[in-house]
Amino acid sequence: MGAGTEPDGSSRSDEEWERFLRESVAGTADAPKEPSARAREVARRLREQPDRDSEGRRSHPPVRPGRRVGWYVVGLLAVLALLVVGLAPGRVVDLVTGSDSPTPDPQQPTAQEPFRGSPAASWASGAAGITMPKEAKAVGWMNAAEVERALTRSRDFLVASSLDRAVLRGERPEKAIALINPHQKDVQALLKSAFRTPTEKHDPLLLFSRFQPSRAHLVGDVVKTRGALTYREGERGALRVTADVTFVYPVARPGDDEILRTIVRRELVLSWDDPDKVHTEPGTFSIVSYKYDMTNGGCGTPTGYFVPPFDASHPTNESDRQVDPYDTDKPFGSGGSGGSAGDECGRATRS
């Protein structure tokens, strides 16, 4: 007969057995005199262990509804937050710091990246941006080696007149002047008066790039350039060299973070004359013509310096005409020997 089974074959429930054993231990009148081995074992366990119902409640806490759904919501909110940070990091910083200042323009030039946002950012720097002819050939009174030397000195003039740091600070361009034929009277007259009393016809900016240190200075060590030298035979067998080069100068006022870019495109035609036919000095050239277009360099009465318009309060006399300084297919705004960009001063569409 199995444990927990009555003689008639019916089974007692565990609850009935436990009640029976408790009554037996307590000494009730109808309890058996000699409990069975199973009854004694169950009684011992009951004395040693806590109540089953209370233990069960401690071992199996109720399940909280909706726990998994809550984690899904938290994950979704985290993904949305990451998207906001990725799309508008500057705005997130403003919200965290409480700043109302606008997010900096990613195309705005800085002291570390003065050409940021400019078409000139990918250009070469300094003399490297002035392309020389691939091969020098004999022309007129010069052999190939002399032509190559004259081309190199023509580029040296562009460097000394428009890239030299001292000249850009407003100093007199002595190295550049030394390459000009000292017997060319009209140019020597220009050089004599331009630095002393600049006028529209006698302005040093016609040949040289200069900034007044108290008003503007070059930002960084780089001037971007793009252009080329070409050559052919000129009058009386002379070597005629044409330079068409654009210079981009990032500049700022002393003590100010605002950066502007002054863009100057120059066209110079130089004649390396035969000294037997033209009164000249060895190693010098005569200037046939000079033209230049300039934007963000100031307008109005000549001062002998480029004057970048850093703020709207500065009088620029700029017209409403839109100018793209990087469009090299357009004709020069000024023409002829002694030409100036002053009469064609418009607003740059890009710098």
- Class based on secondary structure composition and strand pairing: alpha+beta
Oligomeric assembly: single chain
The helix-strand sequence is HHHHHEEHHHHEEEEEEE
Determine the N-to-C terminus distance: 106 Å
Total count of strands = 9
Give the tally of structural domains: 3
Major sheet characteristics? 7 strands, mixed
List keywords for this structure.
351 residues; alpha+beta; seven-stranded mixed beta sheet; two-stranded parallel sheet
Describe what you observe in this structure.
- By secondary structure, the chain is an alpha+beta fold.
- It folds into 3 domains: 14-58, no CATH class; 67-97; 119-348, no CATH class.
- Helices cover 28% and strands 17% of the residues.
- The protein contains 9 helices and 9 strands.
- It has helices at 14-26, 37-48, 52-59, 67-87, 89-97, 144-162, 165-168, 174-177, 185-194, and strands at residues 124-125, 130-131, 217-218, 224-233, 239-252, 259-272, 286-295, 322-323, 347-348.
- The strands form 2 sheets. Strands 1, 2, 3, 4, 5, 6 and 7 form a 7-stranded mixed sheet that branches. It has a two-stranded parallel ribbon with strand order 8-9.
- A hairpin with a 5-residue loop joins strand 4 (224-233) and strand 5 (239-252).
- Helix 1 (14-26) crosses helix 2 and helix 4 (67-87) crosses helix 5.
- The protein is elongated and about 145 Å long.
- The termini are far apart.
- The model is unreliable at 1-10, 52-61, 313-317 and 334-343 (pLDDT under 50).
